[in-house]
Write a structure and sequence with these properties.
Its EC number is 3.4.14.4. It is found in: Cytoplasm. Its main location: cytoplasm. Its cofactor is Zn(2+). This protein is globular. The longest helix is centred in the middle third of the chain and has 26 residues. The chain is α/β, with parallel strands linked by helices. It is built from 26 helices and 19 strands. The strands form 7 sheets. It has a 5-stranded mixed β-sheet with strand order 6-7-8-10-9. The chain starts with 8 loop residues before the first strand and ends in a 5-residue tail after the last helix.
């Protein structure tokens, strides 16, 4: 629950890419970045009750004294240099994760210095001297939870399983399920909502709160049909209200409006107008319209996306965490991805399910490699396939992006820190990890998330398949289930949807990286191509073992969708037998428990491919046919972490925790408006640099912004008890 003092911190280099933009493109990127950074603060309110208080406390400390100045205060307050570094690392971690829970793994992290030393630093600071009452109130509002490691507070979760601010503290899984049924009945998406429960006259009363700048719950001009109002549903009362995160949604909309003046095309203008409508009125339908314009905006120089996007951190799997990114296209790398897109129609039939289970038409997406300028939210991925709206992805299309400057620094590893591999594998791994991961990300995003059909019956009873013809390849019988009306993949598969889909996409990557044509597109031929395949598969099985860090035995739950997916794949490949993968426990040179994982490269194209073929087909059939029961049974069987069977995974988990390496944090640049020109301000790759980037991010309205954050968090404070 500590972030180590030597945690890796990397700067996201985008200076060269930014320099190549025209003045108009720089202004467009600047205002989009401002919208993203303001919206990113929503994540504090989506993570934990204390996160906004801790954020404001740190901002006030560092706005008055930069890390270098505060060091003398720390010394005078009795902190050792190690304790002060731990304080800086904690602050950097809070900024990088936009809260005090890790964005990757959802576990809490606490300061690695005594509470009284942290307090002494605050009390001796310039911020405290100038505003003692305010600083003491901030400390009192967060100091207990800042350090608390009670069982429930160790991780994010619903009810007694953990902490969440997507639901009030009195909600449990049954409330989430009932709310989903209500939302489906009103054709309302959960993406931009939170749920608050109260009791009134012996009835459960639920408030569904929509994220919007407008606070009025009546119909508003420009909105179209309103869904706000009070409804009786299944012996409960549901009230749909606007105004969650209102101040922040207003700031997002204002900056998108400014960006519109510098848009390069009508598609970009249309996209921004719809996003503004979405964040103003709390309309996911408007965000969908914006996403339609976004898909049509092919090959822009400045790429962006913003909104309530990924549902990994909602314990129920339906509500989106806010994120916004702005990036510049890397033309050389994008050319490779464009070639992969052109080959997609040849590669899709290679996937191991019948043609009826594939989309009727492959909607060729944009696939670009981007250098990130801004990525606001709780963490930065390596690649993205969006939008997440199934109805759009299935019939209108999507876009893929690979984040090149993230890939360049995020996964660089030193040999001495490489765990659980043989010495001969370590050198290969370091040499080929980058190129192999590039191939995997490309396949995962484009042909993983971009493949497979959902069988749907719309509200008028029309089917998008022939039910007298389509058979289940596993049983040979006609299919008997499908999605009906407003049901979606997320609403049907809820708690397992994210991880199951990541697993399917990872399997597609492993399966198709065996294809010589794919490897050739990425510039790999002959022996070199085989090394890329070997390291890609080796990386996956090692990642499956490392995934055990993200499993909580007490609640028997997984905290990270991708790592659960990789553990499932490890289990499938171990089960394949014939010496394909071996996993042994051992003792390390330091005498402590260790483990070794090996992969027989001669079996990858035979035993490995067959195992992936069989498993992928099952995953797709359950997904296509909305077979939640079968899909859940399959996925939960392979996700189980036990001491039974040929491997003691619970003991191996202890070994993984003993030897884990902390995930890197990223320092991002700021764009600054000087007259009519935009300048890029970059920072050093240290905890102090990361802190400085955040204190300089909101200079023009910091005090007002912090006051609004505190107001938003204090209104809901009684809801978390």
């Amino acid at each position: 629950y500590y972030l180590p003092n030597d945690i890796g911190i990397a700067a996201l280099d985008c200076g060269e890419a930014f320099k190549l933009l025209s003045p108009k493109e720089k202004l467009y990127a600047h205002y989009l970045s401002r919208a993203a950074w303001y919206g990113g603060l929503v994540v504090l309110l989506q993570t934990s009750p204390e996160s906004p208080y801790v954020y404001v406390l740190l901002q006030r400390l560092f706005r008055k004294q930069a890390p270098a100045q505060l060091e003398a205060v720390a010394d005078a307050a009795g902190l050792s240099s190690e304790e002060y570094q731990a304080f800086l690392v904690y602050a950097a971690g809070l900024y990088a994760n936009m809260g005090n829970y890790k964005s990757f793994g959802d576990t809490k992290f606490i300061p690695n210095l005594p509470k009284e030393k942290f307090k002494a630093l605050v009390w001796n600071s310039q911020a405290y001297k100038e505003s003692p009452g305010e600083m003491e109130a901030l400390w009192n509002n967060c100091s207990h939870l800042l350090y608390s490691l009670e069982d429930k507070q160790k991780q994010l979760g619903l009810g007694d399983k953990g902490v969440t601010t997507y639901f009030s503290g009195n909600c449990c899984l049954e409330d989430a399920e009932l709310a989903q049924k209500f939302l489906d009945s009103k054709k309302l998406s959960a993406y931009n909502t939170r749920l608050f429960k109260k009791e009134s006259a012996g009835k459960h009363c639920y408030e569904v709160r929509l994220a919007s700048a407008v606070k009025k719950d009546c119909g508003v001009e420009g909105e179209g049909e309103t869904r706000c109002g009070t409804y009786d549903f299944d012996e409960a009362v549901f009230s749909v209200q606007r105004g969650d995160y209102a101040f922040l949604m207003e700031k997002v909309s204002q900056n998108l409006e400014k960006a519109k003046a510098y848009a390069a095309s009508d598609n970009q203008k249309g996209m921004l107008e719809e996003y503004i409508r979405s964040f103003t009125y709390g309309s996911v339908d408007a965000h969908k319209e914006g996403s339609r314009f976004w898909i049509k905006d092919k090959g822009p120089i400045v790429e962006s996306y913003i909104g309530f996007i990924e549902s990994y951190r909602d314990p129920f799997g339906s509500r989106g965490e806010f994120e916004g990114f702005v990036a510049v296209v890397n033309k050389a790398m994008s050319a490779r991805f464009a070639e992969l897109v052109s080959s997609a129609e040849v590669l899709l039939p290679e996937l191991p399910w019948p043609p009826a289970f594939e989309k009727d038409h492959f909607l060729k997406p944009d696939f670009t490699s981007l250098d990130v300028l801004t990525f606001a939210g709780s963490g930065i991925p390596a690649g993205i396939n969006i939008p997440n709206y199934d109805d759009i992805r299935q019939t209108e299309g999507f876009k893929n992006v690979s984040l090149g400057n993230v890939l360049a620094v995020a996964y660089a590893t030193q040999k001495e820190k490489l765990t659980f591999l043989e010495e001969k594998d370590k050198d290969l791994y370091i040499k080929w990890k980058g190129p192999s991961f590039e191939v995997q990300v490309g396949l995962h995003e484009l042909l993983g998330h971009g493949s497979g059909k959902l069988f749907i019956q719309d509200e008028k009873g029309k089917l998008n398949f022939d039910k007298a013809e389509v058979r289940n390849p596993e049983t040979g019988e006609l299919i008997s289930s499908w999605y009906k009306g407003s049901e979606t993949w997320d609403s049907k598969f809820s708690t397992i949807a994210s991880s199951y889909e990541e697993c399917r996409a990872e399997c597609v990557g492993l399966y198709l990286c065996l294809n010589k044509q794919v490897l050739s597109i990425f510039g790999h031929e002959g022996e070199e191509a085989e090394e890329v395949v070997y390291v890609n598969w080796l990386n996956m099985v090692r990642a499956g073992l490392l995934g055990l860090e993200f499993y909580t035995p007490e609640s028997k739950s997984w905290r990270q969708a991708h790592m659960q997916a990789r553990f499932v794949i490890l289990r499938v490949l171990l089960e394949a037998g014939e010496g394909l993968v071996t996993l042994c426990e051992s003792s390390g040179a330091d005498g402590r428990p260790d483990a070794l994982i090996t992969l027989d490269r001669s079996n990858i194209h035979t035993v490995g491919k067959r195992a992936m073929q069989k498993f992928l087909c099952k995953l797709q059939v359950h997904k296509s046919t909305a077979d939640v029961e079968g899909g859940r049974a399959l996925y939960e069987t392979y996700s189980a972490v036990t001491s039974d069977g040929s491997h003691d995974f619970l003991r191996l988990r202890e070994t993984v925790l003993l030897r884990k390496e902390a995930r890197k944090m990223f320092v991002q640049a700021n764009t600054l408006l000087k007259g009519e020109t935009v300048e890029l301000e970059e920072y050093e790759a240290t905890a102090a640099g990361l802190i400085q980037s955040f204190t300089q991010r909101f200079t023009e309205d910091a005090e007002k912004l912090e006051a609004q954050l505190l107001e938003l968090v204090s209104i809901d404070a009684p809801c978390w008890c």
